[in-house]
Each structure stands twice: as structure tokens, then as C-alpha cells.
Amino acid sequence: QVQLVESGGGLVQAGGSLRLSCAASGIIFSANNMAWYRQVPGKERELVASIGTGGATNYANSVKGRFTISRDNSQNTVYLQMNSLKPEDTGVYYCNAKRLFQLSGFWGQGAQVSVSS
């Protein structure tokens, strides 16, 4: 079955860095667009960054210049390098894998990121 397993979350002070990883299995990883979403209580899940099968990237305005998404197709893993973290980056970060013909794709279990001021 499909599994997306996130790791790398934690508690960090403002200005610090974290790197999230999402290891995928049960899918043809190289054929999937991969993305990171963030959700905070009471709000909808929002797109943070995405990377296409060809490597094209897209970022939310709030994280441009601070976050970098990358993928390693040989390891079936997508990464989110988060630098200069701010308290408003706090949330549960979810990994998503989706092919073009899919409506929502597959989701990981989420990783908590907490940034203290």
C-alpha cells in the first residue's frame, strides 16, 4: 500500500532551521508531483511548496527565499529545508504525492513544527 512517512519536525527557536523529509513507498515516485502543506488549528490546510516531476518548484509567498523543496528520485524522498523560521511557520506539515489525473493524491501522517519566539 501507499505510505508517505514524514520526519524531521520539532521545536526550534525563531531564526533557526529544520529539514523535513518524506519517504514514499507504494507509488511510482518519479511520476508524482510532490508537495508540502501546512495546517494550523482552525484553518484550512495550505500549500507551502511543491515540486513537479521535472523539478519545477512553486512556493507560497510567505516562505519564498526561506524554504527550499527538493526531491531525490533514487531515494523516493522529498525534502523541505526551512531556514529563518518564524513563529507563524508553526503547524503540522503534511507531505502529498499526486499524479496529474488524481484529485487529491496521497497524504502522510504529518509532522509537527513549532517555532518559538
DSSP helical segment count: 0
What is the average of the pLDDT values?
97
Provide the low-confidence segments as ranges.
none
Number of strands: 11
- Order of SSEs: EEEEEEEEEEE
What gyration radius follows from the Cα positions, in whole Å?
Answer: 13 Å
Word description of this protein:
With 117 residues, this protein is mainly beta. It has strands spanning 3-7, 10-13, 18-25, 33-39, 46-51, 57-59, 67-72, 77-82, 91-98, 106-107, 111-116. The strands form 2 sheets. Strands 2, 4, 5, 6, 9, 10 and 11 form a 7-stranded mixed sheet that branches. Strands 1-3-8-7 form a 4-stranded antiparallel sheet, with no helix packed on it. β7 and β8 (77-82) form a beta hairpin. 31% of the residues are buried.
SSE inventory with pairings:
Blueprint: E1 3-7, E2 10-13, E3 18-25, E4 33-39, E5 46-51, E6 57-59, E7 67-72, E8 77-82, E9 91-98, E10 106-107, E11 111-116
Parallel strand pairs: 2-11
Antiparallel strand pairs: 1-3, 3-8, 4-5, 4-9, 5-6, 7-8, 9-10, 9-11
